[in-house]
Amino acid sequence: MNFSTLGSAAEAIVFCYIGLCVFTYWSGGPDGQLQDDDYEWSPKFIMIMSAVVICGRIGGLSLAHLLFSCCTKEKDVNLRELSFIIYGGLIRGAIAFGLVLKIESGKDEDGTPYFRERGIVVTTTLAIVIMTTMFFGTFMPLV
Fold first, then answer.
1. Is the residue at 31 inside a domain?
2. Which residues span the domain enclosing 67?
3. Number of domains comprising the chain
4. Are 103 and 95 in contact (CB under 8 A)?
5. φ, ψ (nearest 5 deg) of residue 102
Protein backbone atom coordinates (compact mmCIF):
# COMPACT_ATOMS: atom_id res chain seq x y z
CA MET A 1 0.00 0.00 0.00
CA ASN A 2 1.53 3.32 -1.01
CA PHE A 3 1.06 6.85 0.36
CA SER A 4 -1.25 7.85 -2.48
CA THR A 5 -3.72 5.14 -1.49
CA LEU A 6 -3.50 6.11 2.18
CA GLY A 7 -4.04 9.78 1.30
CA SER A 8 -7.08 8.99 -0.82
CA ALA A 9 -8.53 6.79 1.92
CA ALA A 10 -8.00 9.51 4.56
CA GLU A 11 -9.61 12.10 2.29
CA ALA A 12 -12.62 9.86 1.69
CA ILE A 13 -13.06 9.33 5.44
CA VAL A 14 -12.93 13.07 6.12
CA PHE A 15 -15.52 13.83 3.41
CA CYS A 16 -17.79 11.06 4.71
CA TYR A 17 -17.54 12.50 8.22
CA ILE A 18 -18.37 16.02 7.01
CA GLY A 19 -21.32 14.69 5.00
CA LEU A 20 -22.69 12.72 7.95
CA CYS A 21 -22.37 15.77 10.20
CA VAL A 22 -25.12 17.46 8.19
CA PHE A 23 -27.58 14.92 9.57
CA THR A 24 -26.12 15.15 13.07
CA TYR A 25 -26.59 18.91 13.24
CA TRP A 26 -29.93 19.04 11.42
CA SER A 27 -32.44 20.91 13.59
CA GLY A 28 -35.91 19.97 14.62
CA GLY A 29 -37.61 16.73 15.38
CA PRO A 30 -40.39 15.04 13.44
CA ASP A 31 -42.73 17.93 14.25
CA GLY A 32 -40.17 20.54 13.12
CA GLN A 33 -39.86 22.11 16.57
CA LEU A 34 -36.41 22.92 17.94
CA GLN A 35 -35.33 21.08 21.07
CA ASP A 36 -32.86 22.46 23.64
CA ASP A 37 -29.94 20.51 22.16
CA ASP A 38 -30.76 21.21 18.47
CA TYR A 39 -28.65 23.44 16.25
CA GLU A 40 -30.16 26.36 14.35
CA TRP A 41 -29.40 27.05 10.69
CA SER A 42 -29.37 30.65 9.50
CA PRO A 43 -29.36 30.94 5.68
CA LYS A 44 -28.80 34.70 5.88
CA PHE A 45 -25.76 34.27 8.15
CA ILE A 46 -24.42 31.52 5.89
CA MET A 47 -24.62 33.81 2.83
CA ILE A 48 -23.05 36.74 4.69
CA MET A 49 -20.18 34.61 6.00
CA SER A 50 -19.62 33.05 2.56
CA ALA A 51 -19.25 36.55 1.11
CA VAL A 52 -16.89 37.51 3.94
CA VAL A 53 -14.74 34.42 3.30
CA ILE A 54 -14.56 35.05 -0.45
CA CYS A 55 -13.92 38.81 -0.20
CA GLY A 56 -11.47 38.34 2.67
CA ARG A 57 -9.46 35.75 0.76
CA ILE A 58 -9.32 37.84 -2.42
CA GLY A 59 -8.52 41.07 -0.55
CA GLY A 60 -6.02 39.54 1.83
CA LEU A 61 -3.96 37.74 -0.77
CA SER A 62 -4.09 40.63 -3.23
CA LEU A 63 -2.90 43.05 -0.55
CA ALA A 64 -0.16 40.67 0.59
CA HIS A 65 1.01 40.23 -3.00
CA LEU A 66 0.99 43.99 -3.59
CA LEU A 67 3.02 44.67 -0.43
CA PHE A 68 5.50 41.93 -1.28
CA SER A 69 5.86 43.27 -4.83
CA CYS A 70 6.64 46.74 -3.46
CA CYS A 71 9.44 45.35 -1.28
CA THR A 72 11.29 43.32 -3.90
CA LYS A 73 12.58 43.83 -7.41
CA GLU A 74 12.16 40.19 -8.41
CA LYS A 75 9.03 39.07 -10.21
CA ASP A 76 7.43 36.45 -8.01
CA VAL A 77 4.10 35.22 -9.42
CA ASN A 78 2.08 36.32 -12.38
CA LEU A 79 -1.64 37.15 -12.32
CA ARG A 80 -2.69 33.65 -13.41
CA GLU A 81 -0.70 32.01 -10.62
CA LEU A 82 -2.07 34.49 -8.09
CA SER A 83 -5.61 33.73 -9.27
CA PHE A 84 -4.99 30.01 -8.76
CA ILE A 85 -3.64 30.64 -5.24
CA ILE A 86 -6.72 32.70 -4.38
CA TYR A 87 -9.09 30.15 -5.93
CA GLY A 88 -7.44 27.19 -4.19
CA GLY A 89 -7.72 28.92 -0.83
CA LEU A 90 -11.46 29.43 -1.21
CA ILE A 91 -12.06 25.74 -0.61
CA ARG A 92 -12.70 25.55 3.11
CA GLY A 93 -12.06 22.21 4.73
CA ALA A 94 -12.27 19.85 7.63
CA ILE A 95 -9.75 21.82 9.69
CA ALA A 96 -12.13 24.79 9.89
CA PHE A 97 -14.96 22.51 10.98
CA GLY A 98 -12.75 20.72 13.49
CA LEU A 99 -11.68 24.02 15.02
CA VAL A 100 -15.24 25.30 15.38
CA LEU A 101 -16.21 22.09 17.17
CA LYS A 102 -13.58 22.93 19.80
CA ILE A 103 -15.63 25.94 20.96
CA GLU A 104 -16.76 25.12 24.48
CA SER A 105 -20.46 24.75 25.12
CA GLY A 106 -20.44 24.72 28.92
CA LYS A 107 -22.23 27.00 31.36
CA ASP A 108 -21.13 29.40 34.10
CA GLU A 109 -21.97 28.92 37.77
CA ASP A 110 -25.18 30.92 37.29
CA GLY A 111 -26.31 28.70 34.37
CA THR A 112 -25.64 31.08 31.48
CA PRO A 113 -23.86 29.50 28.51
CA TYR A 114 -20.30 30.58 27.60
CA PHE A 115 -21.23 31.09 23.98
CA ARG A 116 -24.96 31.00 23.25
CA GLU A 117 -24.57 31.17 19.46
CA ARG A 118 -22.28 28.14 19.24
CA GLY A 119 -24.91 26.15 17.33
CA ILE A 120 -25.28 28.74 14.58
CA VAL A 121 -21.50 29.06 14.23
CA VAL A 122 -21.13 25.27 13.95
CA THR A 123 -23.88 24.90 11.35
CA THR A 124 -22.68 27.93 9.36
CA THR A 125 -19.14 26.56 9.25
CA LEU A 126 -20.46 23.18 8.17
CA ALA A 127 -22.53 24.78 5.40
CA ILE A 128 -19.60 26.89 4.17
CA VAL A 129 -17.27 23.86 4.14
CA ILE A 130 -19.75 21.82 2.13
CA MET A 131 -20.71 24.63 -0.27
CA THR A 132 -17.16 25.75 -1.03
CA THR A 133 -15.92 22.20 -1.41
CA MET A 134 -18.75 21.29 -3.75
CA PHE A 135 -18.71 24.52 -5.79
CA PHE A 136 -15.04 25.48 -5.95
CA GLY A 137 -13.80 21.88 -5.86
CA THR A 138 -15.96 20.95 -8.83
CA PHE A 139 -14.38 23.61 -11.03
CA MET A 140 -10.79 23.08 -9.80
CA PRO A 141 -9.74 21.04 -12.90
CA LEU A 142 -10.83 23.94 -15.12
CA VAL A 143 -8.61 26.41 -13.30
1. no
2. 40-142
3. 1
4. no
5. -80, -10
